[in-house]
Amino acid sequence: MLKKLVGRCIDINTPYCPCLLSETNHCTVCSHLKGEEVCDCNWSGMCILYEKQWQLKKNKWASDADAPVRLEADTEFGVKQKISEDTYLLTIKVTPELAQSLDKCGSFVFLRRPIDPQFYHFPVGVMKVIGNTIQVVIETIGPKSTRLLENDNNQVLVRGPYYNGIFGQPWIDNIEAGKILLIVGGIGQSPAIAVARQLVKKNNSIQAIVAPGKMGTVFISGELTELGINVQEVASMRQLGMRTLSEYLVDSQKCPELIVSAGPDDQHYGIIAALHAAGVNLPMAATNNTTMCCGEGICGSCERVIKDNKRVRTCKVQIDFNQFIQE
Amino acid sequence: MIKVIVVGGGWAGCAAALAASKAGAQVVLLERTDLLLGTGLVGGIFRNNGRFTAAEEAMAMGGGDLFVAMDANSRHRGIHFPGHSHASFYDVTTMEPLVKKILQNYGIDIKTRARVSGVVKHGKKIQYLTDDNEEIINGDAFVDTTGTTGPMGNCLKYGNGCAMCILRCPTFGPRVSLTAKAEVKEVMGKRADGTYGAMSGSCKINKDSLSSELKNQLEKEGMVVIPLPENLKKSGMLGKKACSQYAIADYAENIVLIDTGHAKLMTPFFPLDLLRTIPGLERARYEDPYSGGVGNSIRYLGIAPCNNSLKVDGIDNLFCAGEKSGILVGHTEAVVTGLLCGHNAVRCCLDMQYLELPPELASGDFIRFIHEQMNTEEGIRLRYTFSGSIYFERMKNLGLYSAQRGEIIERISRAGLADIYNTCLV
Fold first, then answer.
1. Options 3.30.1490.20, 3.40.50.970, 3.50.50.60, 1.20.1250.20; which CATH number does B3-191+299-422 get?
2. Domain A166-323 belongs to what topology?
3. For residue range B6-37, what is the model confidence (pLDDT) as tens digits?
4. Which end of chain A lies in a sparser environment, N or C, as judged by fewer CB atoms within 10 Å?
């Protein structure tokens, strides 16, 4: 099991690296592409400066404002299920390439109506990919998400893939035959399905605590049980879920090796507090709930301050949730 | 027990580990790749010109184990080639296991594939190091022999790109400087034109790819000089190389091949199609760097500022040697500085006064001279070695050069340093 998570860009060595940040010496990894004189990275993969030199020849990043920076699909969506008052499970048929690249926990896409201006794009975590169809859950509470479903619209422009939907991704990727506690609250149920599907592939034994949260419904119990996960539904995470968690932490037989928290930041902090109270130190992967606008590390809306007073753009940088200064 | 951690297993690191162990410390030697010796895996030349003096000084001071091993593993001895006298060439293909064995016999804990990536210090002292797996490595004193070459981004920015050399950064991860991680501002060497860094000065051709006549001659005589065809006599290539002792006219007009197990070609790179127009080299291919037709590794991009006891400025328990300690070239130079730095690392733990080699010794004058020169704009554009160029001239002028073993032993005992490295301090 990895002990410590190194802060690292999620897009490193993907087709989307080096990115626009490297153009202006704002890369989060390569010291040369931060404007320094000599190498000072700790990345043992393909050298980013090298990648940049080779890729310069094809000038892959957008030359004009309308050219897509990632994959885009102009398509239709269907409402598969109305989960609660403002919560909908959507299915969207996308291109095979986009669907395939999204089939990984922590991935997300940006959605908007094709006719709307760019700033209507909003990020949504991918719950599941079946064939060329992706499933997402959206809450129509803000102006952007509400507009997508207004006037019986079924047209959508999907942009992706983006990957930094979960902090602590390497922990999830590396654990095998481990004991995992999955704590799920509210809208976190959607990413929890993606996490669970990935974790069961590697022979892990998973215990889930699920609370309905603000949306008021638990809709994933059946699916989790089918995956062989032991599900415990609680009416309130704050009152009952945390108590159950504490019981797990003090019992050496039940204590997990990894905690995955899918839900609001308050839930993440609650778990950290419970870990402190129990005096145990466990790795915790947590869903990324920051507000995002561009997804490319440019706009700065997802920036958060970490403990050594540095600022990280959470749409790109992997970091231990524990490192954030509580807002 | 005193614990000294040496980071970087090149010649300098091996010598530092050896000296620290002889002085009585428990020593851990950490190496990023799976082989010791670093660029010494592809070097091979020693005892040429003033390097003879320096090697004998080290032997008389009790630090001769590595030179004895090189002597024992030499393919050729007493070779004269343009500008160089009484050179020996050790066999680069068999040297590493021998050195490893010597160090292990001294009880040194060698950890290969162990890449240090972090330094935790308290005030002006290093507390511990962390490696790639976030394992903590505790020690009392630390030695930075991580060199000044690479990783890939540096070779790209200051050279012709990664030439796939023996350092193998893509496989084993980038070189990490302990000094830089301890937040000490490093010095960068310059070329004659003022740009940063310098290119390694030789490439190695696979000996079996030479014509059989050439191969036989090379193995018999140890070296071959082939005049370059008129159209290939190049200029401008000389200023770029690290090894200024070979930056003389003879090397611009001739191809000089040396038998070090490979056929060592004394030029930083040479386009393969042109190389193959030379008689005897029609089938030639490179051994190191693999892309020797295009470029070579870039060095001197991270020199630690240090004093003449080789303690790094600003950190109380960090020492450095080899290229890390100054703009120097060669295995002999690395071993000589390595011995001093390993020895002083032990003195640091015991609160003893640091050893400085006196200017009456070639090695003592060498370290002082480089450190003085590095403070000047002209000096930072040169490279220093016992074997040629500006420093060998100085050695001769000051009467420090000698090829007489007895004379050198006498010199060391006059300085009161006989067997100093063999003395257990603990």
1. 3.50.50.60
2. Rossmann fold (3.40.50)
3. 999 999 999 999 999 999 999 999 999 999 99
4. C
Q: Which residues contact B144 (CB under 8 A, 6 or more apart)?
A: B7, B8, B177, B178, B179, B304, B312, B318, B319, B320, B324
Closest by Cβ to A37, choosing from B152, B173, B188 = B188
| ipTM of the complex, rounded to two decimals | 0.76
Report d(CA A198, CA A83) in Å as an integer: 24
- Closest CB to B153 among A32, A42, A44: A32
Q: Give the Cα-Cα-Cα angle A282, A285, A289 (nearest 5 degrees).
A: 140
Q: Where are the domains of chain B?
A: 3-191+299-422, 198-288
Q: Exposure of B25 by Cβ count < 10 A (0-12 exposed, 13-18 middle, 19+ buried)?
A: buried
Residue B146 is classified by DSSP as -
- Nearest residue in chain A measured CA to CA from B176: A40
User: Does a cis peptide bond (omega within 30 degrees of 0) precede residue B151?
Assistant: yes
Query: B418 and chain A: CB distance < 8 Å anywhere?
Result: no
Q: In this complex, do B162 and A44 lie within 8 Å of one another by their Cβ atoms?
A: no
Task: Kindly state which CATH superfamily the domain A71-162 is placed in.
Answer: Translation factors (2.40.30.10)
* Domain coordinates in residue numbering, chain A: 17-56, 71-162, 166-323
Q: Chain A contact for B160, CB < 8 A? A: no
> Considering the entire predicted model, what is its pTM?
0.83
**B78 contact A CB<8A:** no
Taking only the tens place, the pLDDT of each residue in B70-118 is 999 999 999 999 899 999 999 999 999 999 999 999 999 999 999 998 9
- Domain A71-162 shares a fold with domain A166-323: no
Kindly list the distances between the CA atom of residue B242 and the CA atoms of A63, B196, B199, B373, in Å, as whole numbers in the listed order: 42, 12, 5, 16
Do the beta carbons of residue A49 and residue A31 sit within 8 Å? no
